[in-house]
Predict the structure.
Amino acid sequence: MATLLIEHASELVTMEGPARARVGKELAEPAIVEDGAVFVRDGLIEAVGTTADVAGLAEAGTVRIDASGLTVAPGFVDAHTHPVFAGWRAAEYELRVMGATYEEIAAAGGGIRNSVRRTRAASDAELAAVALHNASVFLAHGTTTIEAKSGYGLSVADELRLLGAIRRIATDTPLEVSPTLLGAHEVPDEYRDRPDAYVDLVVEEMIPRVAREGLAEGCDVFCESHVFSIEQSRRVLEAAKAYGLVPRFHADQLTRGGGAELAAEVGAASADHLEQLDDAGVDAIVRGGVTAVLLPGSVYHLGLSRYAPARKLIDAGAKVVLATDFNPGSSPVPSMQMVLSLACTQMRMRPCEAFAAATINAAYALGRGDRVGSIEKGKQADIVAFDAPDHRNVPYVFGVNHAVLVVKRGAIVADRRGPG
Ligand code: NIG
Ligand code: FE
């Protein structure tokens, strides 16, 4: 039986607590153990506590990790990513730096449609290679579970190919994946003059097929003034529910379009972005029990200044999650550490709150709170050690990868610890 002991962590951030998402003041209760230790058997956490309490469980053959000087925390759960696409969009980045807006580039045929053209032209093997490469980058930065959206295919066959590449992450790498169909990411070129016909395709063909073949857990739609309207989004999300896919969607990102209210109305598991949220929207999110997935990487990368109202959401009792929104257009950041830094500096979340939003709350948002997101007895041993003496150093010292050891289901999947 494989056993692993991580001991002498300067801080062991357990996130121990109630069996549900943290809200309000609970977000600032990370349950840190100093000189902490975790004992793992066969991929599951068997004991958590101080080194003095736990180290005695080590057996002959136990792999011992000395985490002196390191902060040890649950592996990040990144609840919003777009990890499969062909090619970056550096030229668009430069245009935006020079003053073009994301919407202008999209209207001119760039943006998501640019990625769709290139993704459709890529082979299955090329798409799988991108997926597997991005999975290794996530793992190296301490992310052990992701939600992964399709959305750069925009035809039944191409969305299935993207979900196939996403499945390869789960089968070929240690990264755990919750796949989401994002067939309604944009209106593809061939449907520009008849967007409702494209929504028909998503609702009548894509969703039933994906549900029937068990290719996704969730279904998303980009609800935005230049993409899908509230009415079109409602159709997609209602169809998703009817087919047993968990509804979650891009809401109130660039314009305040009533996405928060729609999320509450359809009982969406999450509403993501929410940069334009006002007080009525905060209220709708809280009353609807909708998880607010905040994506500050996209605000930063688009050169905007209006971040989602994290403090208002927390104070109102919302379930708040942080995620990367990793994608080639609006948020090319795979690192949850960078997202924590943005959340603290730009959205005034405390480091401990940011950790809770990026681990246990994200785990509940993906329906995995009973298995991942905290370091507690009986849970999966998804653990990351940061070269940081204090958890606050992770967001505070930014632009570097602090993750030096990453463990998924008890196995070491990344190790860059220095000598001694
Ligand atoms: O989350 N909002 C829609 N999708 C992405 C952007 C994708 C892209 O530009 O390729 C987002 O911001
Ligand atoms: Fe997104």
Notes: Residues 76-365 form a domain with the TIM Barrel fold (CATH 3.20.20.140). The longest strand covers residues 3-13. The radius of gyration is 21 Å.
